[in-house]
Amino acid sequence: MELITLEAQSERAVIVPGAGCQCLSYRAGTLDVIAGPASPDAWREHPHRGGIPILFPWPSRVGGARFTFEGREYGLPVNEPARGNAIHGFACERAFRMTRRGSYFVTTILDSSDYPDLNSIWPWPFTLEIDYEVGNGLRLKARISNTGDSVMPFGFGAHPYFHAPLNPKGARDAMIVQLDANARWALDSNLIPTGNVEPLAGKYDLRAPRALGAETYDDVFRMAPISEGDASKVRARLIDPSMKVAVEIRADAAFGDFVLYAPPDNPVVALEPYTCAPDAFNLAARGVAAGMRELAPGESIELGFEMRLNVP
What we know:
By secondary structure, this protein is mainly beta. The protein has helices spanning about 40-45, 280-285; strands at about 5-10, 10-15, 20-30, 30, 55, 60, 65-70, 70-75, 85, 95-100, 105-110, 125-135, 140-145, 150-155, 155-160, 160-165, 175-180, 180-185, 195-200, 210, 215-225, 235-240, 245-250, 255-260, 270-275, 295, 300-310. β10 (about 95-100) and β11 (about 105-110) form a beta hairpin.
């Protein structure tokens, strides 16, 4: 598989279109920011456990790997067998085609017509274009188009894994997290939203910077509203106090939810921008507004986010 290296000043990112448009690494100077898979072969075994997996046409979980849309039930492959869910869509498992390339940017496309087997998984034809650009941060822009003749439901997200700590000599417990959130989705035992949201309290109140300590997270937060098109607002921050550096995520208003993932057995923290909550298709069928989007035939949408290093 071809590895595409993007460079601008002291920044460097490695993108692999053939591996789900995976970002294997992103470095700013000597700082290694993204905790990527060891190699494209490691990606094959676990396509959404490192780097920046692209989550489409649904981010996170679909409960029971089934959902109803416009009165019809659809089944999805179970790829979280311990809980019986479908997780993170299929874009991160497929090869993208490169359509444009420069020294600091690359554009790739996933066209469902290239994969006839997708018809049995996802009966809505589409194209998904991903632009990566490096320079004063790493930017990702998605362009989603409905190329079929019926309304398509969808959600989009990304799963950036950051080293925790960023400083190899630092401590995971000392890492600090902050989220521009205003509520948290209540989850059941299978990590599926119940449809209720809860006020922020205790370890979940991350509106002010909070040290990770020994806490773990796999939680979904409703983000505070921002004006459409205001991509300059910081939505999430991961701070390494030993280096006095913060990784900041700025995201379009389309990203109404973030997942914070900080497992107990892996020195990473993921700050994941989502356009919808997990299980949004099923929540929508119940009348719960959880961010599920629809594209009419021939319609397209663009959305994106970026990560920058800054001084906290």
